[in-house]
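Listing 4. Sequential folding, example run.
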Amino acid sequence: MRDALVAAAFQLFLERGYEQTTVDDIVALAGVGRRSFFRYFPSKEDVVFPDHERCLADMTAFLSAGGDEDEPVQRVCDAARLVLRMYAENPTFSVQRYRLTKKVPGLRAYELSVVWRYERALAEYLRGRYAGRPDGTLRADVVAAAVVAAHNNALRSWLRSDGQGDADTAVDHALGYAQASFGDSPGGAPATEQEDVVVVISRRGAPMWRVVQEIESTFGRD
């Protein structure tokens, strides 16, 4: 029933346009009553995004199942890939929805609210992992926003190409930027907080001013 309603809705959206299609039109084509429609979808907007609630639940469960041994940024990147998987399951439908959303401002606003919920789910997980770190909350929010931005950049490029090409490779490449910028090193310290170690070798008995001069030279100081 749910799939039939979605199929009927998109058939009408493509034929008549989103604004010109009513819930009554959708249920008439699907051969069901209005009550059946609202049992599955609170509004006409929701029928355009029928799978996001499930995906958000899957993402939240995936993050909750993680342990302390999981690198936090890697974990949220893997969670973001669940969204890609949802889109890639039905490329034709995903491309149609992308085109429709671009044309209807109300749907664009709805989509942004959905993206914000994904971002909040990632941020909540990261806040727990970064608890106790300096600026842990700030770091969590920034990393979550970066991961979502990287994922969506690659996803929308794939959708603009009508679903052609390898979406997984494009998203992996984009998420790689977030991991390189914010991911933790194997030792557990944030990569952005790693410091260079400089080793200066000098002969025994060299005067201290010469040793200091070598160090200053290494650091590029006068």
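-- end of first protein; second protein begins --
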Amino acid sequence: MRINLIAAFFILLSVSSPVSAAVPDLQIGNIHTRLVQPGISYTPAPFAVSQSCLPFTESSRIGPVSGNVAEYKIKVNVGPGEYDNITLTNYVREKRPWTTKADKNLVILPGHALTEKFYSDMAIYYAQQGYSAYILDRRETNVPADETDFGFMQDWTFEEYLQDTYKGINASRSHTALLSGKSAENIEVTAIGHSHGAMLLTAYEASEYDDLPAGSVDRAVPVDIVITYNPENSELIQNQAQEFASINESIENGVYRDSSMAGMMYIAYLASTEPDAEFYLQPELTNRQFFRLTASQTYSFSAYPYTPDYHYWSGNLSGLYYVDEDRLLNLTLTGGTVPYTPKYLDQYMAGLMGNVEGYEINSSRIDSPVLYVGLGGGFGDYGAWWYENEVGNTNSRVTTISWNDQGHGSLLIDNNSPELWALIDDWVDDNKNLKSKGSELKNLNKEKG
């Protein structure tokens, strides 16, 4: 298989490679209309509220989604620009419209270029367990596919994203208080971060924002990320240092957006619309087979793979193993992904993993109970090292779990993802003494399946 013939093309497509490259023309045929993501704007439901005393711009009830679980949308303005909004999608069991008994929050921070659509099953699951569950869509979810001027991303720094996270957590508390009639300050928050969201959550836990009553996180669940590699992984560290240098050069040259997901969306479009046609850069494979290859052998297309076997989903050319391919493609093309993200997030991530001076997280400030979940086909146990050996030095409530060998996306829509959601929920039940340091350090390595 001539993977080397198309390696240059996949510098664009690789999740770990934000090197600037020409994006496939997204206006070929009708792909433009399929990929354009409308800006975040919601038509208020009859029950919509907008009150200046609340830390959000608008709250709208969308309606029931599963049994007595209803969906709400909360929009939070975070800056002066056209796209400077974040959106919380809330799933919660109602007694009646705008009323719930739920008084504990679960906030989900999505991964790179992913939106609430990939996390809605998970959030509905937790709503059914009694949480008021929120998915926090970052600013980039507002940017349409036909945008051409990305100068606004120059201001979308990592610090801005930490502030956005604070505003989102604050808004989640206030919204649940609005629905439940309870005091916002008494509403506990468990946060789950996936990939980029796990990096944000971990940095947030070590920041001053977590010390503020409205923004505090009572339990943190970072899923599949490396904050710092074990020093023994010197080659992976050096690779990420090179990645950092590449990203830094792009930013210095005025390129503030990463378009890797735009390329992945294009491959997904071909796999969905012409699955049996020859892939134009590798004619011995069909479009659908090439999509499967990028999903199951992602490491092969990256200049700097995070781990030796890093992949999104497990499978082979005949199919993906645990996930419904048609649903995966549909979510990718109908709002589950966004084509452009800010390079500053990738810069911070590579800086952490590459041990770049000035890029570190103060592990001693993380005092909440922490559950690190490594996804076996993603970052896996490579990510557990820092939480066990750095956070664990000062925080005795650290647990690590290794989950299967299914890939970086296996938290989301795999047919057995609910098993992992249940494990996380069990851990939350076992860690209700908030920010306590009195328990024994847990190091749980659990292989499922």
